[in-house]
Amino acid sequence: MPEIRKGIQLCNNVTELTAIAPLNPGGAERLRMIFDLRKRAEQAGDSSPIEQIESIHYARWVILDGGTRLLFTSNFDGDLEGYLAEFAERDEGPLNMIFGNCIGWPGARPVGPFIQYVRDHMVPAEYYYSAYPRHTVKEVKRALYWKGRTEHAIARLLPELADTVEAISECCKQYSQLQQPLGARMITPKSLDDARGKIHAFLTELALPTPEDFDKH
To answer: Which end of the chain is more exposed for a tag (fewer CB within 10 A), N or C?
Structure first.
């Protein structure tokens, strides 16, 4: 079960943050313009400024109550203070652009008043679930990188390996003189057939995984 600390729920490595702040008059309209421009830029291929913060699993802004309040919610690695400090130190401009529309916003720097402002407007979650409670964003990205590279290697090499094994097996069946040197290495037509079967089964498992397969490791 998640552990509650200082109004924030932590699930092992991952921390949840939800904050709701009142908006200045006209703030909702300005924010809609800011978010619309941001979405257009990203659709055109621009990267999000949030990508600079390598601890963020996700972040979301929602305008509530007819444009009078702003909700911010995020999942991130580590503790609240470290997360907010990194957010401010990496690039305070986007923070001030967005949260500057909130009543009482002290600015992203210095980080002390910024952290206190967030704490004053935090809403603790009644229940929190994390699909990757023990893994950081960096670990998830590294796993996806390895997955892509491994799939590329498998797609390129394993079919060739299976064909090679099959060709050697056929040669052994046709030419008895090949069986002796291979037999000295404990390689027989049966072991070659078994190897080919294992390669085929492995490729099939990777091509058609199920949720049950994910839970095996």
So the answer is: C
